[in-house]
Amino acid sequence: MNAPERIRLTQFSHGGGCGCKIAPAVLSEILASTPVRGLPEALMVGTETADDAAVYRLNDTQALVATTDFFTPIVDDPFDFGRIAATNAISDVYAMGGTPIMALAIVGMPLDKLPVSAIAKILQGGESVCAGAGVPIAGGHSIDTLEPIYGLVALGLVHPAKVKRNNSARAGDVLLLGKPLGIGILSAALKKGSLSPSGYAQMLDWTTRLNTPGRRLAELAEVHALTDVTGFGLAGHLLEICRGSGVAAELKFEALPVIPEALAWVKQGVATGASERNWNGYGREIDLPPDFADWKRKLLSDPQTSGGLLVACAPEVQDGVREIFRIEGFDAPVIGRLRPGAPRIAVI
After folding, report:
1. How far apart are the C-alpha atoms of 205 and 342, rounded to whole Å?
2. Which of 108, 165, 180, 212 has the fewest other C-beta atoms within 10 Å?
3. How far apart, in Å, are the Cα atoms of 80 and each of 92, 111, 301?
4. Rounded Cα distance, 296 and 254, in Å
5. Which residues of 184-203 are buried (b: 16+ CB within 10 A; e: fewer)?
6. Whether 152 contacts 136, CB under 8 Å
7. CB within 8 A of 26, min separation 6: which ones?
8. Distance between CA atoms of 167 and 176, rounded to whole angstroms?
9. What is the Cα 46 distance to its own chain's centre?
10. Beta strand pairing call for 63-71 and 345-347
11. Phi first, then psi: what are they for 43, rounded to 5°?
């Protein structure tokens, strides 16, 4: 009797992870035609900014953080896919300075293509991350779909005075990044069947690390803005900070942390289609040095799945911010600074 054929989840999806996001320019066009009516005073963060989650004030000491995130497979292993998707969703709560308290599962599966055992492993992977974060999966919803889809609605709590937004950065702030870039590049190499076991281990390590420093960063008033870097790439999410805050950014390319194997692949031209869509959506707002290599440009717009926290803080607390990351098991190098000016990025 022959062994059953190994399931490769990525063969069922046209794109993977946060690379599935609608392109920034298209999303802006869609949202521009969507009316916003009758917002309650208690809604502290809604669709008026490109923030990571909505925030609703419950009382003087508690605000509810609510977010949802789901996508198609970025890896082939069902359990690993579940872990990555759950980590990505919960991290949006941390990006607002909150502490997650509960989650609901979002499940769409092609029941005629995937065995029940594989679907169960996806859910088990997600549950394992939630258990590690002390978060119960209290329910959810499932449907039969053409592509595998998994994610969470994640709910958390934060003090109303300690909410971290992406539109409150200040000129003079320094920028720190909590995870290395290159997840989209590794996913492209994986889909080609070229990613090494070491590269896969690096990819899994970073995509399943919860952005727990966000809880501690909420305690620092000098942390002026916070977001996580996901599908729009570093440049896209930094531009959201610049636009919302009315500042310009200087980005030091040589200071950017990059996953080692991703760096090797991108120099060979490996990248996702989402990277190019991202650049087409916002590249005109970025000033590059003369003779800037194309692989460097692709790294700036590389879509990150479960990417790192991007912090804008006063210079005098940067060492304390880095120590918070270190305690939580991360490094967070300074990658640039904000300055007065029209919302643009100058890569130096």
Report:
1. 37
2. 108
3. 19, 19, 24
4. 10
5. bbbbbbbbeeebeeebbebb
6. no
7. 281
8. 16
9. 18
10. unpaired
11. -75, 105
Beta bridge mates, 313: 174, 223
Q: What's the predicted TM-score (pTM) here? A: 0.90
Count of H-run helices and E-run strands, the chain: 11, 13
Q: What angle do CA 17, 152, 143 make, to 5 degrees?
A: 90
- 3-class DSSP state of 275: helix
pLDDT of residue 4: 40
Active-site residue 313, yes or no?
no
For residue 168, give the amino acid letter.
S
3-class secondary-structure state, position 1: coil
pLDDT at residue 35 above 90? Answer: no
At 176, give phi and psi (nearest 5°): -125, 145
Summarised one tens digit per residue, pLDDT across range 129-177 is 999 999 999 999 999 999 999 999 999 999 999 999 999 999 999 999 9
Q: Which of 308, 287, 186, 171 is nearest to 237 (CA)?
A: 308
Two structure tokens written together for 285: 């707002």
Q: Locate 234 and state its tokens.
A: 């570093």
Set 18, 130, 242, 313: catalytic member: 18
287 burial level (CB within 10 Å; 0-12, 13-18, 19+): middle
Amino acid code (one letter) for 234: L
What does the DSSP 8-state code read for residue 181? B
Amino acid at 8: R
DSSP single-letter state for residue 2: P
Asked if 255 and 333 count as a contact pair (C-beta separation under 8 A), the reply is: yes
Residue 12 CB neighbour total at 10 angstroms: 18
